[in-house]
Amino acid sequence: MERAKIGDIEISVVSSENLSNRALVTEKPVEKGENVADHTKKQPIVIDLVGAVIGDDAADKLSKLMKLQKDGTLLKYIHRNALKNMVIEDINSVHSSKTKNGFTFNIRLKQIRIATAKEVEIKIASPKAKTQVKPKTNNGLQQPQEKLVSPVIKQSTTNEIVSQSLEDIRTGNSTKAILDLYLMKPPKSNSSIVRNPNIQIQ
Fold first, then answer.
1. DSSP 3-state helix, strand, coil percentages of the chain (rounded to 5)?
2. Is 17 within 8 Å of 47 (Cβ atoms)?
3. What whole-number distance in Å separates Cα of residue 9 and Cα of residue 67?
């Protein structure tokens, strides 16, 4: 089996890999009985590595691992398990007399989900013109205004005056008939004269 690699860094010995796949389950309490689960959410994969790095370049490899952790570099882990999009979450190194020219370690890697932004064109319709309504104004209490109505005076027509004069002549009131005919307004120039067929001119 090939030696384990974290990114492009070769690891001398990996004695164990502890892989964790978890899902977050949300629950709601009910009046009676156990809680009811209504949703699950997948959690990132986590792998805990236990091993050792031995050799003259052990210190240099540790420095590179710490730089990868600091920069949050996405990397690939290859050994018994192959995982991509991993970041170094934790590094715990032990330097003892038992490990010559190197160190033992506990390293935790966590998988990162990458979201891709997508542009979507949204068409917005132009708003329709709204009818403007004149706001109501409060003018307070107002005194109701009475409308004056002019009296209508009925004017007698020429035919009515002539007919009344003839009636006065028949009843012997010739003086009144002559006075009414004398005060009668002459017709307008553009009006036609209506003759009463009962009047005979001698």
1. 20, 30, 50
2. yes
3. 12
The pair of three-digit structure tokens given for residue 168, joined into one six-digit string: 């006065």
Sign of CA dihedral 50, 53, 58, 61: negative
- Containing 25, the helix (H) or strand (E) segment is strand 23-28
DSSP string, 74-93: -EEEESSSEEEEEEEEEEEE
Contact yes or no for 112/74 (Cβ under 8 A): yes
* pLDDT recorded at residue 178: 63
pLDDT of 189: 47
- How high is the mean pLDDT in each 10-residue block of the chain (202 residues)? 89 95 79 72 92 94 96 95 95 91 96 80 71 62 60 56 67 63 54 48 42
- pLDDT at residue 118 in the model: 75
Structure tokens at 38: 């209504």
pTM listed for this prediction: 0.53
- The identity of residue 74, as a single letter, is L
The rounded distance, in Å, linking the Cα atoms of 115 and 120 is 15
* Helix (H) / strand (E) containing 60: helix 58-71
Q: Report the residue count for the chain.
A: 202
